Amino acid sequence: MAEFSNDKKTIFSGVQPSGNLTIGNYLGAIKNFAEFQDEYNCLYCVVDEHAITVRQNPAELRRRTYETLALYIATGLDPEKNILYVQSHVPCHAELGWILNCYTMFGELSRMTQFKDKSAKNANNINAGLFTYPTLMAADILLYQTDIVPVGVDQKQHLELTRDIAERFNSVYGETFVVPEPYIPKHGAKIASLAEPTKKMSKSDENENAVVRILDSKDAIIRKFKRAVTDSDTCVKYADGKDGINNLLTIYSSFTGKTIEEAEREFEGKGYGDFKLAVGEACADALAPVRAEFDRLIADKAYLEAVMKSNSEQAYRIARKTLSKVQRKLGFTQIR
Ligand code: AQP
Domains along the chain? Predict the structure, then answer.
């Protein structure tokens, strides 16, 4: 079981099981998680309650919840060092989420760009959960007195709101929550769609050619990169107006560890075809060990369930402490 020490800072992050995970989720978030596991108290959650803000097929949601947990482990997160669990297994998230709704302004939630984007994409299902998604996210983070939240750049606005909510609550009731800081990676913080490189790559995108998934086969990965939208120029150079090439350079650099300048030099005088093939190969090769480990883990459901159970019990004990403190401060009566 993961050791949770008062001397260490705490890290929390989550991924929605709302689709098969992309290299955006990988490079922007989960690839970085393993770096923290020795020096921080780390909690990584599969946020299934967030996923239902968009209609999900129940069987697929269940399958992807197991798969997301298996991917956490396959990318190097040790369940003996990190608390890896499923959001709906710890009811404190929803309870604190409700409370924080009462400390979050309608105007604040209306300004969230994710709400605007997702409302436009799901015009026939603009539900209240989609609107209050950021207060549940604030609860996820604040329940564990989190210091640092590693996320992609798309979640920065939600994190700023979390900070505002924490500060507001603290100013009314005295120090209750740690005010968290975002950790946004230098490379890979925003991976764009391969089909529309001005938009972010999203796991729920219906255009399969726009999205490279962590578990795609090598052939599929190479085929998708070959089709990636670029521009009518022929020069592999990071520059304004070259969103497609900029995105491919970012992906190449993130997977190989080379800088953008090194990559530009490597492809000097070569065409886009050679470059796209190299990006596809670098990506597929880097993900091959993750895929192999995932295949082993996903076949062992009993093991994944044992991790879910023991880790969620540990998360619950920590979360319950914060929730009780909040309830006491609010004036809720307590019988336990
Ligand atoms: N394209 C991206 N580039 C960099 N980071 C990204 N993240 C997501 N897309 C990119 C980061 O991945 C983590 C988990 O994301 P999430 O599952 O909580 O939800 P999301 O941000 O809404 O991701 P998606 O893939 O776009 O999901 P759907 O399609 O369901 O909305 C977060 O840290 C996020 O920043």
Answer: 10-184+300-330 (3.40.50.620), 208-294 (1.10.240.10)
